[in-house]
């Protein structure tokens, strides 16, 4: 019974307006890129089937608006997230400086049960711009920030060229999976007359 359950992994992408959140999602799911910029209104999502350790999951990727006037929509979209992706533009220092605000805002709005260990992944996007000559945020600086926040995985990407996008989302999916409560993933719905099954289930729940 449990193996037939549809496993949904919810991922939220956060970051300033214009850093490439929509483009990254479209490149990963549809292998498409558009030069025409259109701001996301509120939030949108795409889904993709992914295989992790010989099992299929549905990755539900939420792309949220970077404009402040839409941030009040946050609570509804953040709740139930299994992983949060923080995205910035390596050519815009302000977008990097705002990562901490996005991270804090997410933890407040989503209220994860274990905020200290909630999985984040950071993407430094648009490394293709001007052959890399326009970048103002060094890889070293970004990795140092990630290390200071509990060793958050870090990827440098180009949504336009598709560079590192697949690898980044593979990491994102695996981190999302780690965040799912174990009993929901593989504990079978067995009938245990001695009640041992129930004890095992509640014990597993205590770890969350």
Automatic annotation (TrEMBL):
UniProt-listed InterPro entries: P-loop_NTPase (IPR027417), Small_GTP-bd (IPR005225), Small_GTPase (IPR001806)
Membrane topology: Lipid-anchor
Pfam family, one: Ras
Transmembrane domains' residue ranges: none
One GO BP annotation of this record: protein transport
A GO MF term: GTP binding
This protein's GO CC annotations: endomembrane system; vacuolar membrane
Alphabetized UniProt keyword annotations: GTP-binding, Lipoprotein, Membrane, Nucleotide-binding, Prenylation, Protein transport, Transport
Major localisation: membrane
Matching SMART domains: RAB (SM00175), RAN (SM00176), RAS (SM00173), RHO (SM00174)
PROSITE patterns assigned to the protein according to its UniProt record, in alphabetical order: RAB, RAS, RHO
Subcellular location: Endomembrane system
Family label: Belongs to the small GTPase superfamily. Rab family.
Protein's name in the database: Ras-related protein Rab7
Organism: Rhynchospora tenuis
């Amino acid at each position: 019974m449990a193996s037939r359950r549809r496993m949904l992994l919810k991922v939220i992408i956060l970051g300033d307006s214009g850093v490439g959140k929509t483009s990254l999602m479209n490149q990963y799911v549809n292998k498409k890129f558009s030069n025409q910029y259109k701001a996301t209104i509120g939030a949108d999502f795409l889904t993709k089937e992914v295989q992790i350790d010989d099992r299929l999951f549905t990755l539900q990727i939420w792309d949220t608006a970077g404009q402040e006037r839409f941030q009040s929509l946050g609570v509804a979209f953040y709740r139930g997230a299994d992983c949060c992706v923080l995205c910035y533009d390596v050519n815009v220092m302000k977008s990097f400086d705002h990562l901490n605000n996005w991270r804090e805002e997410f933890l407040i709005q989503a209220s994860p049960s274990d905020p200290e260990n909630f999985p984040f992944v950071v993407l430094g996007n648009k490394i293709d711009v001007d052959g890399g000559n326009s970048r103002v945020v060094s890889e070293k600086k970004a990795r140092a920030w990630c290390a200071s926040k509990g060793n958050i995985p870090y990827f440098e990407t180009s949504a336009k060229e598709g560079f590192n996008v697949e690898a980044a989302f593979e990491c994102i999916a695996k981190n999302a999976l780690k965040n799912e409560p174990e009993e929901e993933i593989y504990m079978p719905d067995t009938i245990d007359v001695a009640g041992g099954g129930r004890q095992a289930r509640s014990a597993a729940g205590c770890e969350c």
